[in-house]
Amino acid sequence: MSKNSSVKQFIRLLKLKKLSFCSVIACSFISNILYILVPLISAIAIDNLLATKKVVGEYVLDKSIVMPIIFMLIFSTVAPFITALQEKLMARLSEEVVLETRTMLMQKFIKLPVQFFDSHQVGDILSRTTTDLNKISTALLSYFSQLFGSIITIILSGGMLLYYNFALSLIIIGLIILSAIFTYFVAERNKVLSEKTQEKLGDINTAAEEYFTGNTEIKAFNQENEIITKMENLHDEHSKLYLKAQFLNFAIFPIMRFLTQIAFIISALFGAKLALMGVISVGILQAYLQYVNYISAPITNIAYVVNGFQSAMGAFNRALELFNEEEEIHDKQDAKLIKNSKGNVEFKNVSFGYSKDNILMNNISFKVNSGEMVAIVGPTGAGKTTLINLLLRFYEINSGNIFIDGVSISELKKGDMRRNFGMVLQDTWLFKGTIAENIAYGKKDATREEIIEAAKKAQSHHFIETLPNGYDTIISNDETIISQGQKQLLTIARIFLIDPPIIILDEATSSIDTRTEIKIQEAINNVLKGRTSFVIAHRLSTITSANLILVINNGNIIEQGSHEQLLSKDSFYAGLYNSQFQN
Fold it and tell me: Cα–Cα distances in Å, from 320 out to 112, 191, 502?
């Protein structure tokens, strides 16, 4: 995404919070006007003081001196309070903008296809949605209000300088132009470094997520030292990039301060000469020099702020790239709805590839009648799970069609279509919550009796009862209060609860001991009666009763038939089956 696009998107986000944004602008404008008026009023007071011929004690009673002093005190007192209010409003605005962005990203994630999450690393996604967006909050809180305040100060102070002495003000104008050119080149370089820094931080998050997840394997293979070395290298690369970016970020300060000091010295010398010549008064001279200081500080500040803001935009770009990801194909407006699905499924000349140039499946065709069991077998990586993903529309097919009860799945609403499926994966997933809530994940309104009945069918009621709080025990996918096999049982209980017409089992009993597997298999066989089922299995002994066995290799169905039909000939399936019983 281009820089202009990210800035436009940033402005669009600010427009969503018009009231807060306008309040911040108003506070900044008022406080800066009050600050700018102080030197002008002090010039009036000084000139009135020098013009007065009264004795020292009588100065106190002279309104021409007292009133300007009173106004200066009022303005100097009120301005800090308005500035404090501005900072408070800006803090709220920054959090509102980041919250709005995160909400938009979450809505985007919901619309993204499974393919996106298969092709993007978790650590990088987390980095984009957390660390990168936090930089936007920092940019708003620390940079944006300063930037706007500095611009107002420069405009107002510059106007006063031009009003007092146009020729002398050309020095300051030259300084502004020189600073703007210098700041632009530094900021552009800093933006590039910042983007590289954030990318490297994403690599660190990805590596950390991978190593923490595989902690057991790392220890088992004694790879701790190698992992430490890899992480140190990543951190070292990130550190070098970060230091370069920070050097550019802060090196601009001394350079800009040098330029502003030169401008102040020149202004003071020429201004003093003009005062001695009687061209300007002493009060105007002091006011002029104050305005030079007023304008010098914002110039330095803008250089720093623009530099930092560019760095934040680099991080913002990475977050915004997610919005450019292609979404799932939307449901048709006249999408159909299948009520009381019978579970008839047909693949007709289906072809699929992750890209048009890389077709993995060609002309896949088979038909499954209601209540039949379909077993999908083949070597690892043959495309068994991909076939199921196509059935659930996690991936969109390139050509052909898939039908449920004679209706193309492209004509159905995804949500309604997927309610006809119950799925148990080889990799279990539980969220942080009670066991009852995890079982009822697909049926939130389930009663406790229904949950318990589903758990009994899944052979998990007994072990649940032995836990400290039974069905109210808090668990999560990462905690070890229950075993991997028990987690598998809970995911199977979910299927018993929602009671769908079509069931998908992807190595559902892979983490369960043989004795429990026999009980589960009996329960599954009872549930499968009258329902269509797709079973992905590596242990071929569990699918001998299947009505149809699809043998997949290299993404294509190379054989199909019943167990007896495939064994009766010299088939690929026969080789797989016999190899599992050889000593």
Answer: 14, 15, 39
